[in-house]
Design brief:
By secondary structure, the chain is mainly alpha-helical. The chain is built from 4 helices and 3 strands.
């Protein structure tokens, strides 16, 4: 089963409440919580919340293929796979 971790803000958006209310919801449901490397606390969604999350994805009005292509393009750019700028090739060479 997949694991989906969300910040309190994200959980609040999913649940239609504030981040503080989402935190109380996470405590009430005894959801696993962890501090992430970015400093945000994230909670692991239970099966019911994952079902709600997947339902929002299905209902979303955007093109998943375009979103996936944009993510792949961003990954290529961040990993340095993008071709070097021809003007920068040879800089520093006498």
């Amino acid at each position: 089963m997949p694991q989906i971790w969300m910040t309190y803000d994200e959980l609040g958006t999913l649940s239609g409440c504030s981040a503080a209310e989402a935190r109380m919801q996470a405590l009430h449901l005894s959801l696993d919580r962890r501090k992430s490397r970015d400093g945000n606390t994230r909670v692991k969604l239970n099966a019911a919340l994952m079902a709600r999350f997947f339902e929002t994805i299905r209902e979303a009005d955007f093109d998943l293929d375009d979103a996936i292509a944009a993510l792949r393009d961003a990954h290529r750019q961040m990993s340095g796979v993008v071709a070097a700028d021809p003007a920068s090739v040879g800089r520093g060479v006498a």
